[in-house]
Amino acid sequence: MTVTTPARDDSHARLDRLSELARDVLRDCAARGAGQAEVSLSEDRGLNVDVRLGEVETVERTHDRSVAVTVYIDGRKGSASTADLQPESLAATVAMACAIARHTEVDPAAGLADPERMAKAPREFDGWHPWALDADAAIALALRTENAGREADPRISNSEGASTSTAESISVYANSHGFLGRERGTSHSLSASFIAGSGDGMERDYWYTSALAASDLEAPEAVGRRAAERTVARLDPRPLATGDYPVLFAPEMARSLIGHLLNAASGGALYRGASFLVDRCGERLFPGWFQIDERPHLMRGLRSSDFDAEGVATLDQPLVRDGVLVRYLLGSYSARKLGLQSTGNAGGVHNLEVRANAGDLRAIAKAMGRGLLVTELMGQGANTVTGDYSRGAGGFWIENGEIAYPVAEVTIAGKLQDMFLAIEAVGSDVDPRSHIGIGALLVGRMTVAGES
């Protein structure tokens, strides 16, 4: 795949402009009586094309701007936003935020993060790789992706299309502590989705590649063939008897379990009492070998940053150590509500690494011997208030350590608390398309509802 770079990169000049606008907004906030204020400004550009059956379906260029202003006046908070960067619009947005603040209730937990927690001299982490891709070149890549899949196997009977996408974003966050942080990042992707079989025996599946740099993407032909192979592999699924079985989550599915942990450990859920992890920090939730680390300073990491959404400095730090949840995920507001300190997670987590204790999916399946491999999850059946988990699933039955046949229309269920403790293996085959770095994951036993 040919990768080109722009002849001229104006991102620094645009960041300079956003930075000056941020300073202007903060001066206006102070002049209108705000004791504290913060502002976020962003600009996004992108190109997305979709093709289907060899024809162009959509070509979309995007160029969006946004400004969000928050002020604090005598313990009261007001926020307003706009997409217009003209001075009169920014002034009106500040005036609106101040007017709102004067009509809200006093909240002792409201306010900026503590000034001593601000990041010093924020750095970049190799996340800026713009792709000089015009519409014709993007269409050609999408067509190559789709054609490779359609030609891969005669059982591919239809296409749901292929896509090429490229996007770049620049942003500035500034507050009245004197902090100003600038960030820029890019993202690129190729994807394809196909249908195999006919009549009641049709199955669909997909594949995609995504990266910060176009040079890190899989080749279009590889994406198309992988999507086709996954689709054909699902043909002729068999029913599965209801029972308790080991469940092996493919890497792209395994990260959803970590996502449920993050939701339950977030400050917003905790101070509202809407999490099964309330008052459980310091408890062992996983097997003693299980480790999760947050690594916000990885070069070319998908969520790398020196500061969080409030300007608080980020740190390399554990989340789970030797199976024990060692901290929650807190911004300054939720930390104050809980009587704790911000963990630098306003706006979410950065790069997570879940340490492996096993080989890849194939090796884990071989050791498992018999059970369900999950390659698809459906629905939103995870309740982080109670820990109840029930989701539709599809995948393959493993017998004697090998894939025996595809399985569809089953439900896997349990309680997250029990599932976490029942994890037996985490694979080394990390899916690079997410900021949650995890390989295949084996839960020793779950209820699988299939054919009665």
Examine the coordinates and then state which fold CATH places here, giving the name of the CATH topology of the largest domain: PmbA/TldD fold
Strand content: 25-35%
CATH class placement of the largest domain: Alpha Beta
Q: How would you write the strand order of the largest sheet?
A: 3-2-1-4-5-6
GO cellular component, one term: cytosol
Domain Metalloprotease TldD/E C-terminal: 242-450
Domain Metalloprotease TldD/E central: 129-235
GO molecular function: metallopeptidase activity
How would you describe what is shown here?
This protein has 452 residues and is an alpha+beta fold. It has 2 domains: 11-233, PmbA/TldD superfamily (PmbA/TldD fold, 2-Layer Sandwich); 237-452, no CATH class. The protein has 9 helices and 17 strands. Strands 3-2-1-4-5-6 form a 6-stranded antiparallel sheet. It has a 5-stranded mixed barrel with strand order 7-12-13-14-17. Helix 3 packs parallel to helix 4 (220-233). It is globular. The model has no long low-confidence stretch (mean pLDDT 96). It holds the Pfam family PmbA_TldD_1st.
Q: What is this structure, in a nutshell?
A:
This protein has 452 residues and is α+β, with helices and mostly antiparallel strands. The chain is 24% helix and 35% strand.
Question: Notable features of this structure?
Answer:
452 residues, alpha+beta, PmbA/TldD fold, 2 domains, six-stranded antiparallel β-sheet, five-stranded mixed β-barrel, 17 strands, 24% helix, globular
